[in-house]
Structure formats: C-alpha cells, structure tokens
C-alpha cells in the first residue's frame, strides 16, 4: 500500500505539469477563435434597434410561417408562471389593446379540444415567434419564397 501511495505521489507532479501545458495550449488556440460574424466572441456588435411596425404586417415567406413580432420583447417575462404577451394578445384583451388576437390554434389542447385559455403547448410564444431585428446575416441566405 505504501508503494502505491509513493508511486501516486511521484506521478502527481507530472499530471499537474501536463494539465498546465494543455491549459496554455488551449489558451493560445482560443485566441484565434472567431464567431460566424467574423469577430472575436467577446466583441460587442452594433446592431440597429429592433424595428417597430407601423400598422402593416410583415410579409410571410412560406405557408404557416409564424408571424414575426414587430416590437422588442427584451424585458418580457415568459416562463411557467407568467406570459406577458397575453396581456395584449389574449382574446380577452386584444380588442381593448388594439393588438392582433392569437389564432384559435393557440387555444386548442393536444386532444383537439377548444379551451378558454392558451394551451400549454402554445404557452412559450418565443418558441415560434421572434422579434424582427436589422442584424447582419450569420451566413448567406439562399432561401426564396414560392411567391417570388
């Protein structure tokens, strides 16, 4: 048992040195890492403010495409307990707030039964809907809609 402990004590400095060399190597190669936008990952990019819609809806590029969100949702709470989108877009509030109402599919549960409240499978709006932003493309987009 003492021999095993002695051999382990001899091997420990070699392991530490190898770990330090690996960490230094990773730090050197990490300096050359770039994001898809061509800058260092920790560099802040200037992006135009989120576009705000002026009474017209965005053109959809394919059938059943979820509509884009025409306003910022940065500070919106959307979690298991709360969904701030519903303050304006729930059928009960949309008329008073002048906001588009959710489609009836959002009130249909997984068994196809219409309910008074938003179905749990449609609760997290940003799962399908995203705010429109004027941001540089990460990669070239070759998509063409059928309508073009």
Automatic annotation (TrEMBL):
Q: Which Pfam families match?
A: NapB (PF03892)
Q: Where in the cell is it found?
A: Periplasm
Keyword GTP-binding appears in the UniProt entry = no
User: Which Gene Ontology BP annotations are present?
Assistant: anaerobic respiration
* Record: residues binding heme c 2: 106, 125, 128-129
Annotated GO MF terms: metal ion binding
List the GO terms this entry assigns under cellular component, sorted alphabetically.
periplasmic space
Q: Binding of heme c 1: at which residues? A: 71, 85, 88-89
Where is this protein chiefly located? Answer: periplasm
Q: Which Gene3D superfamilies match?
A: Flavocytochrome C3, Chain A
How is the polypeptide modified once translated? Binds 2 heme C groups per subunit.
Extent of the signal sequence? 1-23
Origin superkingdom: Bacteria
Keywords assigned by UniProt? Electron transport, Heme, Iron, Metal-binding, Periplasm, Signal, Transport
Q: What does this protein do?
A: Electron transfer subunit of the periplasmic nitrate reductase complex NapAB. Receives electrons from the membrane-anchored tetraheme c-type NapC protein and transfers these to NapA subunit, thus allowing electron flow between membrane and periplasm. Essential for periplasmic nitrate reduction with nitrate as the terminal electron acceptor.
* Assembly description: Component of the periplasmic nitrate reductase NapAB complex composed of NapA and NapB.
Record family assignment: Belongs to the NapB family.
Listed name of the protein: Periplasmic nitrate reductase, electron transfer subunit
Q: Which species?
A: Cereibacter ovatus
